[in-house]
Amino acid sequence: MIIITSKYLIPKGYAAMALFPFLLLKAKKYSNNRVLLQHEKIHFRQQAELLILPFYIWYITEYFIRLVIYRNHRKAYINICFEREAYANEAAINFLSSRPLWNFIQYL
Fold first, then answer.
1. What's the rounded Cα separation, in Å, for the pair 35 and 78?
2. Which pTM does this prediction carry?
3. How far apart are the first and last CA of the chain?
4. What are 14-45's pLDDT values in tens digits?
5. Three-state SS for 26?
6. What pairs with residue 2 in β-bridges?
7. Residue 22's beta-bridge partner residues?
8. What is the DSSP string of 36-84?
C-alpha cells in the first residue's frame, strides 16, 4: 500500500480512496484514522480478490445500476456491495483476518 496525500485527488465529500496499490488521502490527518484505514483495507482485499480491473468494472456497473434504481448519487454509492461490506465492518479491526473469500457477495 502506497499512501498519497492530496486534497486535489479526492472527490468533494470523501476523505480517502483505495486505488490499488495506492491509498489516496485528502489530508495527512486521516492517516491516523483507524476506522477509515480499515474501510480502505477492505477495499484493497476486494480489489485483490477480483484481480483489480474486474473490481473497477463491477464497481462502476453496480453504481450506475443503483443510480437508476435510487436516482440519488449518495444512495447509489452507499448501496454498492463493496461499500456495504466496508461500512458494515470498518470498525472491526480484526475483520480481515477472518473474512471469507468473496465476502462482499452477501451484500448484493
1. 17
2. 0.95
3. 27
4. 999 999 999 999 999 999 999 999 999 999 99
5. coil
6. 22
7. 2, 19
8. HHHHHHHHHHHHHHTTSHHHHHHHHHHHHHHHHHH--HHHHHHTSHHHH
